[in-house]
Amino acid sequence: MSSLIAFSVLIIPYLFLLNLVISANNILVNVAIPITIVSLIYFWALHFIYTRMHLSSWRYLAVAAFGLVPVVIIINLVISMQFNMPLFTVWNVLGVLILIAIGVGLVYFEREKLKKRLVNQSKTPNLKANNLELKKG
After folding, report:
1. Which whole number is the average pLDDT over 36-57?
2. Would you say the pTM of this structure is higher than 0.90?
3. Residues near 63 by Cβ (< 8 Å), separated by ≥ 6?
4. Residue 135 belongs to what H/E stretch?
5. Whole-angstrom Cα distance, residue 110 to residue 66?
6. 17-41: b or e for each residue (b if 16 or more CB lie within 10 Å)?
7. Measured between alpha carbons, how far is 117 from 112 in angstroms, rounded to an integer?
8. Cα separations (Å) of 30 from 13, 22, 23, 24?
9. What's the rounded Cα separation, in Å, for the pair 106 and 64?
10. Which of 28, 30, 102, 130 could anchor a disulfide with 19, C-beta 3.0 to 4.6 Å?
């Protein structure tokens, strides 16, 4: 968490300093600051989800993949507004579809793992209950 705090505090001054050093006519600031803010919100949301919701690792990765879709769209929107480019190109749509496919695949994998675990639990006898019955009898 300390690295996330340090990144959150130091990234904006670093970008301003970098803009001064390379004298990019504020293009770097106009593009990098909104992208950085959206990315920080995404990272902090993932941190909150990881620490508070106690999801399994596969489900957490699925949430991260699905959560990355709006981040990618917002970043593409910022870039398209700044450089007068189309919002949705073939590569942007392909990237979003790949993220959605990864998220769906991870959810499916988690569900299959859960089904196997439930089937295995129903096949194994309850040893504690059997031991208690043997001790009573």
Report:
1. 92
2. no
3. 46, 49, 55, 103
4. helix 127-136
5. 15
6. eebeeeeeeeebbebbbbbbebbee
7. 9
8. 14, 14, 13, 10
9. 10
10. 28
